[in-house]
Amino acid sequence: MFKNLENYIESNILDFSKISLERKVLLEKIAEFVEQKIKRGKTAELIYICTHNSRRSHFGQIWAATAAAFYGIKNVNTFSGGTEATAFNERSVAAIKRAGFEVIKTTESANPLYQIKFDENGKALEAFSKKFDDLANPQNGFCAIMTCSSADQACPIVFGAELRVTTKYDDPKTFDDTPEETKMYDERCKQIATECFYVFSKVKI
Fold first, then answer.
1. What are the DSSP calls for 121-166, one per residue?
2. Contacts (Cβ under 8 Å, ≥6 apart) of 25
3. Whole-angstrom Cα distance, residue 185 to residue 171?
4. How many domains does the chain have?
5. Going along the chain, which residue ranges are E strands?
6. Which of 14, 22, 178, 204 is least buried, going by the fewest C-beta atoms within 10 A?
């Protein structure tokens, strides 16, 4: 794992005491899903869903994959999607760069494709905005993790999901173009990271 990212993890996000007990119950449902899938010899697939697939859902996808690798848990694939497609917001891209990820933009378009790595020798994650049912995502047997209230309300049913868990996060978009923009994006990035690491700390294989 990249040294700067490893330092970020060790110094910033392994404080699980800040997670409420109510929240931990929800996160442990995700951990149980992952654990049971792997014990049955299957791959655990997680899709993080928000409205535009531009901020919170990408944080979820990226940090969940990183947490699984950190704890040595294999056969986990993570994805993200929205109720509509826009773009992986440049402010969110900047936040994960500050956390220590290597990010390479591989296309120039309104909805760019990014290659994201947490380890020099690891496989890159592909990040771009898409609907949650895009063919790039699994179509059945996955855990749908709803990261915003709008997406949760817009999708009363996520077809193909084996489990649905709602873990809403405040949208850092509220602070776009304000003096607190960077701080709030970093705060949301860190919160989602901490909760993803809590999930995988609870997976016992």
1. TSPPEEE---BTTSTTS--SSEEEEE-SHHHHHH-S--TTEEEEEE
2. none
3. 9
4. 1
5. 44-50, 76-82, 102-105, 114-117, 125-127, 142-146, 161-166
6. 22
Q: Residue 47 is part of which domain span?
A: 3-201
Task: Express each pLDDT in 118-170 by its tens digit.
Answer: 999 888 999 999 999 999 999 999 999 999 877 666 665 688 999 999 999 99
CA separation for the pair 178, 53 (Å, rounded): 22
Query: Tokens 């891209």 map to which residue?
Result: 93
Eight-class DSSP state of 175: G
**Secondary structure letter of residue 85 according to DSSP:** -
DSSP-derived secondary structure letter, 9: I
| Domain harbouring 93, CATH code | 3.40.50.2300
Count CA atoms within 13 Å of residue 89 on its CB side. Answer: 22
